[in-house]
Amino acid sequence: MAARNRLPPWHDQIRLANGREILIRPVRPDDAEPLRAGFALLGPEEIRQRLVSPLPELSAEMADRLTRPDPKTEFALVAAEPLPPGDAVVGGVARVAMVPGTRDGQFLILISGYIAGLGAGRQLMRRLVRWARGKKLQRLIGEVQEENQPMLALAESLGFRQEASDHPGTVRVVLDL
């Protein structure tokens, strides 16, 4: 019996706490412009709270780089509307990159305000952890702004511990894999 509506690997359609359906899937080059458009909708406070180094915009070069991860050392996902890439509004992006010379992975998750607090971050983080374990990494590490209590609480609920960070105003969260 063939499975209907079977999604490709790393693709999952989920329902958020507010009932909205999103598709979590690997990032694709077609996502560069929707990522830039979504980033432009973030307010300065959202950007400051979610990123260690605030960015005034997501440049075309940065978006292109983010949407073309090196499959040997990087993994990136988006949480988007269940529409074709390039047409879908992207509400979240998650990325992990292996740190050269170590068995660590550095992660970053950015969730837009319109889906923040509805479970998308947890869904993305679980997939980053699964990828990191598949790559036999020893630790997953992220830098989180001290004020970003939702992300710190999410990390703690998933087993991350907190450490001092080299960046003022941030906390390093670490998950031993």
Automatic annotation (TrEMBL):
InterPro entries: Acyl_CoA_acyltransferase, GNAT_dom. Pfam families: Acetyltransf_3. Keywords: Transferase. SUPFAM superfamilies: Acyl-CoA N-acyltransferases (Nat). It comes from the Bacteria. GO terms for molecular function: acyltransferase activity, transferring groups other than amino-acyl groups. This is GNAT family N-acetyltransferase.
